[in-house]
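Re: duplicated header lines in exported structure tokens

Our pipeline writes sequence and tokens for each protein into one text file. With two proteins the header for the second block appears twice in some exports. Here is an export where it did not happen, for reference. First protein block:
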Amino acid sequence: MADMIKQTEIRPLKCLVVDDEPVAVKGIVAYIEKLDFLETASTCSSALEAAEVLKKEEIDLMFLDINMPYLSGLEFLESLDKAPMTILTTAYSEYALEGYRLNVVDYLLKPISFQRFFQAAMKAREIFKSQVLLKKNKEDASTDDMYVRQGDSFKRIAWEDILYVEGMQNYLKLYFKDETLVIHQTMSSLEEILPKDAFFRIHRSFLVNISRIDTITGGRIFIHGKELPVSRPKKEELLKTVVYKNLISK
């Protein structure tokens, strides 16, 4: 475990900077160069260029400007099936709530001070460490146990004991019968790690353990007395998945 953590800290996050203002790109690249846990992999002046980069390169962290021609940063982010960790940058504060709806790591208001940049970068670093830990769990999995980072320590859990997961901005809440754990992680990366036949994404903000569902009614489900919303596009797929799982278990 200690060796893996050490490797995670050494490996810099590969960054993509997307902004149609050359001065803004230059400023972010200069900040990246000040931190040994970040490195600039590529820069782009539009979302369309960024889409091509993401097809060809492995990007860990994207600094994405919201206000760009043709395709805004928010539109671009929403169009991605699998987006890297993203820090939004903009001169307009009214987009902050929309950005957090998309589970971005942070939201930087221009002009960006190095202090705020550093805070956002540290958040991304913690999420990255958690992602590596979860991937390591999956690679080494010989049991149903996995480790999640809790501050400076690691807690062993069994994924089958998770009732459901709730996305909260740039972190997740893992709900169990008797406790709730908070981890720095994105929903999409956790979804990749957990068994696909056991967990279902009922909503942008909720991932549930299918075997823990007590009731499905209308556009809602109940787990351990908690009511959770099911998005309209997911309702039919959820019913089919639950029915299929029940048939297989029999």
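Second protein block, exported in the same file:
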Amino acid sequence: MSVISDHKSRPRRSQLYAPGNNEKLIVKASKLDADSVVLDLEDSVPAEMKEEARRLIGRLVPELDWGKREVCVRINPLNKLDSYRDLLLVSTLDRVDSIVVPKADVGLGSIYNATGKSLIPIVETARGLLRVEDIVCEEGVVAVTWGAADMAFSFGGSLDAFSSNAYIRTKIAAAAVTHGVEAIDKVYFDVEDTEGFAAEAREAKKYGFSGKQVIHPNQIGPANSVFTPTAEELEWAQRILRVYEEGRRAGRGAVRMDDELVDEVHVRIAKGIIQRANRGAVGED
């Protein structure tokens, strides 16, 4: 399996952000149950502390035990000089798996070719939304996510309207599934409202998202729970495969299970559920 294929198959139920200039939070993030950790060099780091954050990440990434967690670095937007300084750093860190690219609105294949790191673009502008399929189809992209706040600003609209926008979720998910990458849902800003977070995660799951960005440790558990197939979902998937195989051996292309007509599309859904269940948590051997 290639490195990129391996990165596509890893779980990203929870993708936790940690400010790149905060040693305590970076160390803590390496010990939490998030599937993926994003060390941030963009919004959470003041301009005057960018270089200090790069030095800190450069020291801590090789020192810490990250286990099976995906280690990512969110660079600064590509129209900023700091992004090139970020890329120079990331290219030297073997333990960094993926580069998270904010405000992505162009193809990113050149970054993959230059660094060898897998890519996770964030779609958070009007132009990025229009070009999302061109962005995710490029070599090196393993997942895509989106940001409601910057998207609202780009449109000159309201955060409430964009946070609950079904069209955006559908468009992101459609581009992701078409090109075989993961769709990760946006940040939920109210870190005390875990019920609201879980409800939004369940809604994203209905659209085909396989994980959620998180900004606080208390959001990790709900994300992992929502995006792990339930026992009922797994039982349904296993029954689908068993019934369909029995029908295939009998020469039928579609079979009935209870009150449901089962055909090839159900088989693909069932296989996806089983694949997600088999990925396991980052702490499992």
